[in-house]
């Protein structure tokens, strides 16, 4: 292993580093693919550290959502380069790129949680990670008023951006428009008066079709969006549900999902996340919140 200076050797990564980022993520069992990393690069900044052979050995990314909020993710250090301060240096670099008034969020792994606490992050919420190998459509027998779910069109995007802003507490328009272009499927839930009450996206990764973000006014509408995104998909599914909706995971479990983890959402520069309207049912992905 070569000598590395955690502060001197930090680089801002680009599309030419995508293959190195994929290899780095695979080293810890994560399944980042090229389209996902392009979305991260288009929406934020990825920092990295390389050894003298040019191999990427550590990374961290920050995605700003206006001045209100930013999200940190892709925090990875090769096992043989751990305990050298690389992860801490990269996170501190990410933190310095935003205003001290900007709330920074991240979703912590068990291994990373002590470091984040050392840097001043506090637990503010949790997400429920649910996986599904074989999807079963829900039973709608007890539903009086079915939800009208239709494919998202370009005309819906302004309403979708506003729904997302209210549900996340920040302006994610730059990220969201990139994410919509990346999406395998995108749907909106239409209210009786024709306005858009919710929306959902699905993103195909190397292993799972990830469902999210999903914004909805209630469990029933959220489940209708999940069904539109998941029904007929032959492969594995993943959804990360905001813990503020404790009645929703049991509905997903009836469709074949299994709750496999409940990692904490941690924040810096505030004891809590920005004010939200309670309509965020599933996050876009753990890196994006």
From TrEMBL:
The keyword Cytoplasm does not apply. InterPro entries: Acyl/Acetyltrans_Enzymes, Acyl_CoA_acyltransferase, GNAT_dom, YitH/HolE_GNAT. GO terms for molecular function: acyltransferase activity, transferring groups other than amino-acyl groups. Residues 8-150 form the N-acetyltransferase domain. PROSITE patterns: GNAT (PS51186). It comes from the Bacteria. Keywords: Transferase. Transmembrane segments: none annotated. The keyword Transferase applies. Pfam families: Acetyltransf_18, Acetyltransf_7. This is GNAT family N-acetyltransferase. It comes from Paenibacillus elgii. The lineage of its organism: Bacteria, Bacillati, Bacillota, Bacilli, Bacillales.
């Amino acid at each position: 292993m070569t000598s590395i200076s955690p502060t001197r050797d930090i680089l801002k990564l680009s599309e030419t580093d995508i293959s190195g980022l994929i290899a780095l993520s695979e080293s810890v069992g994560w399944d980042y693919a090229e389209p996902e990393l392009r979305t991260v690069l288009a929406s934020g900044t990825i920092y990295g550290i390389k050894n003298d052979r040019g191999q990427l050995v550590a990374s961290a990314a920050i995605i700003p959502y206006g001045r209100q909020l930013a999200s940190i993710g892709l925090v990875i250090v090769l096992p043989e380069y751990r305990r050298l301060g690389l992860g801490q240096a990269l996170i501190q670099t990410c933190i310095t790129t935003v205003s001290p008034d900007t709330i920074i969020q991240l979703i912590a792994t068990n291994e990373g949680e002590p470091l984040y606490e050392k840097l001043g992050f506090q637990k503010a919420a949790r997400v429920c990670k649910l996986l599904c190998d074989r999807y079963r459509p829900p039973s709608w027998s007890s539903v009086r008023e079915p939800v009208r779910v239709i494919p998202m069109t370009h005309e819906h995007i302004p309403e979708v951006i506003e729904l997302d802003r209210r549900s996340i507490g920040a302006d994610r328009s730059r990220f969201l428009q990139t994410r919509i272009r990346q999406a395998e499927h995108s749907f909106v839930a239409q209210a009786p008066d024709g306005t858009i009450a919710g929306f959902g996206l699905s993103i195909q990764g190397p292993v799972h079709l990830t469902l999210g973000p999903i914004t909805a006014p209630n469990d029933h509408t959220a489940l209708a969006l999940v069904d539109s995104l998941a029904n007929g998909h032959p492969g594995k599914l993943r959804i990360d549900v905001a813990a503020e909706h404790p009645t929703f995971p049991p509905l997903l479990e009836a469709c074949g999902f299994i709750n496999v983890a409940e990692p904490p959402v941690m924040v810096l520069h505030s004891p809590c996340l920005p004010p939200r309207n309670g309509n965020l049912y599933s996050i876009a992905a753990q890196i994006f919140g």
